[in-house]
Design brief:
It is a single chain. Helix 1 packs antiparallel against helix 3 and helix 3 runs antiparallel to helix 4. The protein contains five helices and no strands. The longest helix is centred in the middle third of the chain and has 34 residues. It is 68% helix and 0% strand. With 137 residues, the chain is an all-alpha fold.
Length: 137
């Protein structure tokens, strides 16, 4: 099963928002939490999971090197490293699937054109006191 990497996701976020990821991260810090913040958070979690996969895979590779003896002490390290690698893969898979689904559901809004008329503001709603007075008569 092929998953999008954090690099792929970063590219999709940049395409969606029309700006580099670093600029979007700076912009999101000045805004209330919203879709951009959520996407950036998912991207960060995905990138962290990918780094964790690399780290634990490399650690396990060193532990099972053909020149190393594997004794009872090393077995516990192998099991722990394997568990941590499996957890990182599960996080990566879940994050990649989730963020890809969210990004697929979003489209970039077209830039406003000067030819399109500006919509008039909606009529103000009647005050609540006036509405309740009408119903009580």
């Amino acid at each position: 099963m092929s998953h999008l990497t954090s690099t792929d996701i970063a590219g999709r976020i940049e395409d969606l928002y029309g700006a580099p990821l670093a600029d979007l991260e700076a912009h999101a810090q000045d805004q209330l939490p919203g879709m951009l913040s959520a996407l950036l958070g998912m991207h960060d979690t995905l990138a962290l999971a990918e780094r964790s996969i690399d780290f634990h895979r490399d650690h396990l590779t060193r532990l099972i090197h053909p020149d190393r003896q594997i004794g009872p002490h090393e077995v516990s390290h192998l099991l722990d490293g394997t568990r941590r690698l499996a957890e990182a893969v599960a996080v990566r898979d879940a994050q990649a699937t989730s963020v890809a689904a969210v990004l697929q559901s979003l489209t970039r809004a077209p830039a406003p054109t000067s030819a399109s008329p500006t919509p008039s503001p909606p009529a103000p709603a009647a005050p609540l006191a006036a509405q309740s007075a009408m119903h009580s008569r």
